[in-house]
Write a structure and sequence with these properties.
- The protein has one domain.
- It is about 75% helix and about 0% strand.
- The chain is built from 7 helices and no strands.
- The chain starts with a helix and ends in a 13-residue tail after the last helix.
């Protein structure tokens, strides 16, 4: 963000507040989608997980496919929004900049920087959710809890 926008200081409120809002809002969406998917998958695949544990798998190994599916489904809306950006639809920030007289190339650079920040933050928060969240379903003896 600092390389594209070149603001000094980096925490200038007129830039920091809207950009942080976009990044945090998208991260919250990813986390809520990931949480819902993780809980649902852990409930529906309870027997498979317990079977893997009985055969000697660690909790991480028993839920690895669930973790992968959860991560993918949680970041998919963000990836989908990046796919159509600029071709199918113009994001609000970019459109606003173009209408206010900013060069379209500058508006595109800003939008790309914002979207990379969003996909990075969503990926990191969902990764942390999936890698640590599954542990809440197991007790200290590596048994699946109800």
């Amino acid at each position: 963000m600092l390389l594209v926008i070149h603001i000094e200081p980096w925490y200038e409120p007129r830039y920091f507040i809207p950009i942080a809002g976009m990044i945090i809002g998208n991260s919250m969406t990813g986390v809520s989608l990931g949480t819902e998917r993780l809980i649902g998958e852990m409930k529906t695949k309870k027997e498979l997980i317990e079977g893997a544990l009985m055969l000697g798998a660690t909790p991480k190994d028993a839920v690895l496919e669930i973790i992968k599916d959860t991560f993918t489904s949680a970041i998919m809306p963000t990836i989908n929004s990046m796919v159509g950006m600029g071709i199918i639809f113009l994001p609000g920030m970019m459109t606003g900049q173009i209408l206010s007289g900013v060069s379209p190339m500058i508006a595109i650079e800003y939008q790309i920087a914002i979207m990379l920040g969003i996909v990075g933050s969503v990926s990191i928060t969902v990764f942390i959710l999936t890698r640590l969240g599954y542990l809440t379903f197991f007790n200290r003896f590596s048994q699946l809890e109800e």
